[in-house]
Design goal:
Layout (H helix, E strand, L loop, with lengths): L1 H17 L1 E13 L3 E8 L2 E7 L4 E11 L4 E12 L2 E7 L3 E21 L4 E24 L2 H6 L7 E12 L3 E12 L4 E11 L1 E17 L5 E8 L10 E5 L10 E3 L2 E3 L2 E11 L3 H6 L1
Parallel strand pairs: 2-6, 14-15
Antiparallel strand pairs: 1-4, 1-17, 2-3, 4-5, 5-7, 6-7, 7-8, 8-9, 8-10, 9-12, 10-11, 11-17, 12-13, 12-14, 12-16
């Protein structure tokens, strides 16, 4: 027992004597790794699936890393993802045009173990969570009225409606996996530059959504606005709800604003570039 306590004491003292802390800031770009279906493109000749991941886009990260010795360390990271536009629906028909995209605006955090293979080459792996943000859908559509409908509205043939709305989707806090492999180049004793390849493996289960803005105008064939704000947030058309809840089970008699939950992909492969500042370790401070 005494030997065990002595060993642990020596290990703790050696760790404290070496302990080094560093902070890093980086930015990078990630591409889709999941390749899951996100939507469809429809035209007169047929329908085509669109694939991708909401994890694709530009990211920014701030990390703090604590090294226990010259090989092992622990890392805590906070990041922001400014996702690329992903096609959800694109319709190009004679009487209907739809352009619907969605994009991630997400904050995340990760906790990782860091291992130095050499003084310059390192790897890290750990857990990843999404702590905030949204998936923002931006939809624009035009629909030409059938002649009978146009006549009923007192409009000439060829008149059409133009709808634009924005809907924010939120999800359940997910747990994912992060891994990176990087190279660090020392500029000085304190400053270093690094480049790393990073993988995020994570999916997000939808919890709810809310329409943020909604507007439908009715236009004449020449593009002149005949009725402005025919529909709005205060007067949504049938089939739309300001708030929608996503659930795992839905009764056939359901009349509430609920839909079955789905999982959407955020997985990605990325390349990051950044700078690191190393605080003086206690070991080096004693030497100096």
């Amino acid at each position: 027992m005494k030997k065990t306590i002595l060993f642990l004491g020596v290990l703790l003292l050696s760790t404290i004597s070496y302990a080094q802390f560093q902070i890093s800031a980086s930015t990078g770009y990630a591409i889709s790794s999941a390749g899951m279906k996100l939507g469809e493109e429809i035209d007169a000749s047929g329908t085509k699936n669109t694939y991708g991941s909401y994890g694709q886009g530009v990211n920014f990260q701030i990390r703090g890393t604590y090294f226990f010795n010259d090989t092992f360390g622990a890392d805590l990271s906070l990041g922001y993802l400014h996702g690329d536009d992903q096609t959800i629906s694109k319709v190009n028909l004679e009487n209907q045009q739809v352009d619907a995209i969605a994009r991630a605006r997400a904050f995340g955090a990760s906790a990782s173990v860091v291992y130095k293979f050499t003084n310059n080459i390192y790897g890290r792996f750990g857990a990843l969570i999404k702590i905030g943000g949204k998936t923002e859908a931006v939809v624009s559509s035009t629909t030409v009225f059938a002649d009978a409908e146009a006549t009923a509205l007192g409009l000439p043939s060829g008149s059409y409606s133009e709808t634009n709305y924005v809907e924010d989707f939120h999800g359940v806090f997910p747990l994912g996996f992060v891994a990176a492999f990087g190279y660090q180049y020392d500029l000085t004793k304190n400053f270093s530059l690094f480049v790393e390849a990073e993988y995020f493996g994570i999916s997000l289960k939808r919890k709810d959504s809310e329409i943020q803005s909604f507007n439908t105008d009715i236009l004449l064939p020449d593009g002149t606005v005949a009725v402005e704000g025919y529909y709005s947030l205060d007067n949504l058309p049938d089939g739309y709800d300001i708030k929608t809840e996503y659930v795992d089970e839905l009764a056939h008699t359901n009349t509430d604003s609920k839909e079955l939950a789905v999982k959407v992909p955020y997985s990605s492969f990325g390349l990051n570039f950044g700078v690191t500042y190393k605080f003086k370790s206690k070991e080096s401070s004693k030497i100096e």
